[in-house]
Design a protein that fits this description.
Length: 285
C-alpha cells in the first residue's frame, strides 16, 4: 500500500502543473502589445471587432485573431515603365509613391494585400497618365503630372483605407536618337537667339548713328571736330601709316580764293571720282 500511494502522488501533482501551464499559455496568447505606429485589427469568430492599440490589450485566445497593420508612410518605388507618349515617343519612366494606411479595418477587409494592390494601381496609372501627354509636356511640366497621377491613385485606393500623399516622377529615360535630336534642336534654338540679339544690336546701333548724324548735320563745325578727334585716336600708334580723308568743304574756300586771284586758270576740285566717259577729271586747266 505504501508503494502504490507513493506512485499516485506524483500523478496528482502533474495534473495541476499541466493545467497551470495551459492557463499560462492562454494568458500569454491573450496579452497583445502593439507599437505606437501600429494597430491590431481583431476578428472574433470571423467577424471584425475593430482596431485596437497602441499599447497593451487583451484578446480571447482561439476565438479572437489579430492582424497587425503598420500606419507609417510607405515609400514605394515604381519600377521602370515603358510609356508611349501622345506624339509616339517611347520613354522609360520611374516614379516614387508615398502612401499610408488611414483606415486599418478597410485595409484588411477591402483588399487582400494593400501593398501589392497599391503598387499595381500606381504602375497602370503612371502608364495611362503619361501616355496622354506629349514629350515636351512630360519634360517641362512634371509638377502638374505628379499632381494628376497622385489624384488618380488616391481616388482609386481610398476605398481600401489608403491615403496617397505624394507621387514624384524620378527619371525619364529617352532613346539615344531622341537625345541627339533634342541636342540639335537646342543648338538651333541658341543660334536663333544669338542672331536675333545681334540683329537687335545692329538696329539699335543704326538708330544711334542716325541720331548722331542728325546732330552733326545741324552743326558744321561738329564734323571737323569729329575728324580731329579721330586723328588723335589714330595718332596713338606711332608706327602707323595714316590715310586721313579731308572733306572738300574744308578746302573749298581756298580753292575759291585761288580761282579769284589766279588769273585765267580755273581750278577744279579733285573728288576722286570719274566723269561720264570713265576718265578722271583734271585738277585745273
Amino acid at each position: 500500500m505504501g508503494r502504490g500511494q507513493s506512485q499516485t502522488a506524483p500523478m496528482y501533482l502533474a495534473i495541476p502543473i499541466a493545467i497551470a501551464f495551459v492557463v499560462f499559455l492562454f494568458a500569454i496568447s491573450a496579452v497583445k502589445v502593439v507599437q505606437e505606429y501600429e494597430r491590431g485589427v481583431i476578428f472574433r469568430l470571423g467577424r471584425i471587432q475593430g482596431a485596437k492599440g497602441p499599447g497593451l490589450f487583451f484578446i480571447v485566445p482561439i476565438i479572437d485573431k489579430m492582424t497587425r497593420i503598420d500606419l507609417r508612410t510607405v515609400t514605394h518605388e515604381v519600377p521602370p515603365q515603358e510609356v508611349i507618349t501622345r506624339d509616339n515617343v517611347t520613354v522609360k519612366v520611374t516614379a516614387v509613391v508615398f502612401f499610408r494606411v488611414m483606415n486599418p479595418n478597410d485595409a484588411v477587409t477591402k483588399v487582400a494585400d494593400y501593398l501589392r494592390a497599391t503598387s499595381q494601381i500606381s504602375q497602370t496609372t503612371l502608364r495611362s497618365a503619361l501616355g496622354q501627354a506629349d514629350l515636351d509636356h512630360l519634360l517641362s511640366n512634371r509638377e502638374q503630372l505628379n499632381q494628376q497621377i497622385q489624384k488618380i491613385i488616391d481616388e482609386s485606393t481610398e476605398p481600401w483605407g489608403i491615403k496617397v500623399g505624394v507621387v514624384e516622377i524620378k527619371d525619364v529615360e529617352l532613346p539615344p536618337t531622341m537625345q541627339r535630336a533634342m541636342a540639335r534642336q537646342a543648338e538651333a534654338e541658341r543660334e536663333k537667339r544669338a542672331k536675333i540679339i545681334a540683329a537687335e544690336g545692329e538696329f539699335q546701333a543704326s538708330q544711334q548713328l542716325a541720331a548722331a548724324a542728325h546732330v552733326i548735320a545741324a552743326q558744321e563745325s561738329a564734323l571737323q571736330l569729329r575728324y580731329l578727334q579721330t586723328l588723335t585716336e589714330i595718332a596713338v600708334e606711332k608706327n602707323s601709316t595714316i590715310i586721313f580723308p579731308l572733306p572738300i568743304d574744308i578746302i573749298e574756300p581756298f580753292l575759291n580764293a585761288v580761282k579769284r586771284f589766279g588769273g585765267e586758270g580755273e581750278v577744279v576740285p579733285v573728288t576722286g571720282g570719274k566723269d561720264g566717259n570713265g576718265a578722271v577729271p583734271a585738277a585745273g586747266r
